[in-house]
Structures
1.
Amino acid sequence: MYAFNYKRAASIAEAETVFGAGDDAMFLAGGQTLIPTLKQRLVQPSDVVDIGGLKDLQEFTASDTVIVIGAGVCHADVAASAEVQKFIPALAYLAQHIGDPQVRNRGTLGGSIANNDPAADYPAALVALGATVHTSKREISADDFFTGMFETALEPGELIVKVSFPVPKRAAYAKFPNPASRYAVVGVMVAETASDIRVAVVGAGPGVFRVPEMESALAKRFAADAISGISVPVDDLNEDLHATADYRAHLVGVMAQRAVASIA
């Protein structure tokens, strides 16, 4: 690692102040992304601001209309929540299948979406469920939050405080995981919300995206075979040693049908 200044913040206000005073500061929550990149010397922050202990980021409230989860809540707690399992079981399932137990007990909701890894799971949930990201400065709809590969609408020093998830009529998540990392080679969440049907895909492209053709077909008839003939263009899909673009395009269809079949 490179040398840096370390500060454990006692409040959101202090975290923002310390961040703003640094030449090239970075926030540390669960550390599942930052610690490995520090070890590999891929980043060289002037200051690391630890927000992992902030109680203001631990909010967890639920009703039959909305679930609010603090940015500092770890994946394991989302998966184990009786309220999430009751009102949005697809979200609990998604959280339960992130990484391994060590990752789930350290990684946080806020850290995951702030990093916006194209193979991360949570962006599919936020977009499919029509979630809202609440930061220290404003509210951002999920549709506007994820802007590109490892890029979000967050401004420098802006902290994610919590995420509110409207409770859908029904939703399901299906993922084809990398067998080693458990990252999504392709993951698809299908949700019927109060206003529409959404199909959100992660892992296949440089960022989370929706499939309007599938959404339209499911709005007419919510059944797996209603989307069996729909494919996504391969032009902008990821291609690496784990899967070709063609294979990922195929998996989008398969995972979407599996998700629909589980709740149709």
2.
Amino acid sequence: MKLHTLHRTRYRYEAPVRESFNEARLRPATADGQECRHFELRVTPSARSSHYLDFYQNCVHLFEIAAPHSELLVEATALVFTRDTPALPADATPAPLASVGDCLLQDRCYDFLPDSTYVEVTPETSALAAEAAAGATDVWQAAQAIMRHIHGEFQYRPASTTVHTHMREVLKARHGVCQDFAHVMIGYCRALKIPARYVSGYLYNGPRDELKGAQASHAWMEVFVNGAGWCGLDPTNAQLAAHRHVKVAVGRDYADVSPLKGTYRGTDRHRLSVEVLVSETEELPQPMSVA
């Protein structure tokens, strides 16, 4: 699919602020069957930006605004090509659950097994995870069983949590949004020693408006399967991550992939608005922009 993404963030401050230093993780990735053909970042007031790859290979843009300003507008647009590639190759043989501990020997898995900012493995989590994955014999079966369990047992309720909600709160409330479902699933998988990481991005809903979490920043997760690598699962919609999912960044949980964060001097009273639009397009590929 050829997808056009727009992510617009606007801060309005009650009094002018200054010395604003920011980092943005908004550029879609080029990896795993996805290609970002064009990207543009616009900041108002005007600011020069630089970019680098962080520890998890996410593209991070840095920009600063020293002068006083009452509003900050950050607009990211991209043209992304996605492919409906199988999450698990046909010739892959998922590791049995009994040998899942071998993943500790792989550097790329180590960070995605311990607790993190919004994910915690407790005896309760371990018991719930074992129940959700009962009967599964390999990593991929277990992960899909956990996905279906979370989709069935937790209610999707927009605006019921915040970006700082911990998975333990979601386990008590039994409701949340896509970020919360991803955190709970990551916690369950880690409780079974399955490496699991958080994915931020977007979801194209298509003309039928049948998926939850579309037309907003979306979140899902990936598990590591020996012989196949990282495989995406979307517990909010109980489906594999595929050509409708646009991956932007990965990390241990939301704390590693926040789309926009920073510091500034001035009032803490502000209004925040975020708009996301994902649409299918027939645009021809444009020259790659690194802005």
3.
Amino acid sequence: MKIGSKDFRVPHHKKIHLKQLPTVVKPYCESKEEYQELLKKHIEELSSLQQLHYASHRYALLLIFQGIDSAGKDGAIRHVMSGVNPEGCAVFSFKQPSAEELEHDFLWRTTCRLPERGRIGIFNRSYYEEVLVVRVHPKILGAQGLPKELLGEKTLWEDRYRSIVDLERHLYRNGTRIIKFFLHLSKSRTKKTFSRTN
């Protein structure tokens, strides 16, 4: 059975509305046994591909997982990467910036964690936090110690979006392939998840 990803991809330069995208996936298997068999097959294939990736030593692979709290980023990373050899892979979670990270530009902390050629890097959150969380919590922006004239700049956020796009283009030109996953839950599903944990 081949699982199609077309329904879950966002084409380049296309605007989307999350409410119109699927948040629940219908089961691909009719039983747990069938699921376990399919999972085993996919894990073996992923393991084989990782060995080729490591041996070729030409490209780096960066997987970025974004989503609100309780969207399932940790579980998705654990589940999807279960067939990967940990020696060829590194996972980094980006929470609130540390004092050291605040002393550098906003891309510095993630750039330091980029995967080497032949390896897989996984970001649990990323530089996208800068244009999501920091934009909503101006105290974090204030703690970055930027010159006052930059803080007052009307194009601050637009410039940061541009910096992210430029970084990703630079990485691509130098052999890093990036796959981004945005885990979206509807408001009602998020509410149910939070009510179960409280």
4.
Amino acid sequence: MNKTNHLKLYLYKHLNDRFNMRLIQILPLLFLFFSCTEQETILETETSRRTENIKEIESSAFQTLLDSADLKGAILVYDLEADQYHSNNYEWAKAGHLPASTYKIPNSIIGLETGVAEDDSTIFEWDGEPKMFARWEQDLIFKDAFHYSCVPCYQDLARNIGVKAMNEHLTKFEYGNKLIDSNDLDLFWLQGDFEISQFGQINFLKKLYLSELPISDRTEKIIKRMIVIDQEEDYVLRGKTGWSRQNDIDNGWFVGYIEVDGQVYFFATNIEPENNAEFDVNAFLSVRMDITLDALRELQII
């Protein structure tokens, strides 16, 4: 944790010889008043600066993880109880990127809230056409469609939700940088200029965890159950990966939160290959989660 510098107070007093005796008599009182006020202001400024330093902790270990995997980007971890962020690159973490399949979390919530999906057992029927992955070529219940990251399933979900309802919920959730229209309703999270930052992802997930999203208790219970990735005796891991390719650049996500020993830690990792010409799809798909878990180990969370 970084320590702030010691306070340095510079107090100046200028006295003009032409001032009358009365002013000279009251000047010490005025000086005392303004000196105290200035000191309080400086102390408040320095305290704020110290608090900011505590909240955003630079992690060289996170950068080492990315360097070792030939990646650029940022790992962002938020400790709710300590109100502290850990990252290797705050500038990257505050920049917007396509949400890709991480959007399946809010999309699922909106589907449940609008009644387009009844629950996490709602069936998405396969249309019989070949898909990108063999696991998509079957009827899938909602929960499996989420974990298989079935793009065609969620495109159907988005079309059935419609532009109006989608935008209403995006606005209520404060998710993303813009509203969408009918031209990109079923693709805006994978292509175009709809973006969310890593800080935005964590803010959204924090609202979900704290029951601060404007959704029903029923929807909240279903989605929290639906997004569980791993559950052991001492922890529960929830989240979603994402991958988009735009302008020949591959961008990967892993967002979520982990509950350990009564504490909760939120994470949002966003990465790109250091050299896209040497891009290895299979390695990229697995490394998103791997380096995030390694970062949590660095912080001794798991």
